[in-house]
Predict the structure.
Amino acid sequence: MTAQAPSPSNNVSVTRQILSIVFFTFIAFLCIGLPIAVLPSYVHDQLGFGAVVAGVTIGLQYLATLLSRPFAARVADSLGGKRAIGYGLIGIVSCGLLTLLSAWTLSLPALSLGLLLVGRLLLGISQGLIGVATSSWGISQVGAEHTARVISWNGIASYGAIAIGAPVGVLLVDSLDFSVLGPLLVIMAGIGLLALRTRPDVIVVRGERLPFWSAFARVAPCGMGLMLASIGYGTLTTFITLYYLERGWTGAALCLSAFGVCFIISRLLFVNAVNRFGGYAVAVSCMATEVIGLCLLWLAPAPSWALVGAGLTGFGLSLVYPALGVEAIKQVPPSSRGAGLGAYAVFFDLSLAIAGPVMGAIAVYLGYTSIFCVAALLALSGVGLVLLLSRRSRRS
């Protein structure tokens, strides 16, 4: 018997339910984006610390997110997505208050920096809580058959929020002062908490609770494919400016815009392809597209070719996360969905952590052009891994 296609009205209803949940992802990542572009100059120019300390201030948040994944997964599975999001929003409120105190203690640089770093730690933990909880809650709300759509919309909300928040934060700080950021974070998180109060409580799924590292082992094959593909994203965002400088070109920011626009367009247009063709098939085709894009960046004779390469990289990478995520979540019971989502996200975190130092070391010896060749080879090895996983899945 042929499965009946879902009606348009049902599709609209599902999308509305997903958007009502990923709204909290948008709030969280808007709060992450607002300070991200102004923190380095604040730490370096106003507090008087070096570039290393400025880098640590930014990186500490992502380290906290990575290390808090097991905790976030346990909270989402045992207490439900609503409560996990609430704790995350309270963490953002605390970050906002500490950021404001940091601005008020500018005359005491060490104290100001310490307050800022504690705030960044709380923001990182909040990111982990809300990221896992919204995905887990969304899948529970609309059904496991819409896993790809939930993950895709979550990604659109997070990337879109950072794209909006970063320039807005720069404009506000330039127009007013750094002290405006703290209250703004408190207000945005407060709006999220008020909206959360109107949502009904989430029914916690009963059943087997896998330890985080057991879930990690189950999703690791798909996670490795995600990591091999995502290193290209970390390479592009970290080194595209230096790559352009080495080639004597201008307009590196356009590459990031091309990547982001194509990434979002791909998710909006083709997210249903995961349900139609299967996660592994979509991941293979998307990763192959990413390989072509990275090769164009490697071999680009002119900026226009690099722009096309960045667009293809974004277009291809866009659906890898939800496509492999669908297959990864099948490996854990519904009662441990938060643990599975958190463990899967660790591989994306690791890809960003690895891309900077590894590709930077390669660039020192071989130049910035070569790093896109290496990223393409890693993505190609990811295609091979996913093909093996697909074959194994068909046999079983």
Remarks:
- The chain has two domains: 8-197, 212-395.
- The domain at 8-197 is CATH 1.20.1250.20 (Growth Hormone; Chain: A;).
- Confidence is low (pLDDT under 50) at residues 1-8.
- The longest helix spans residues 212-247.
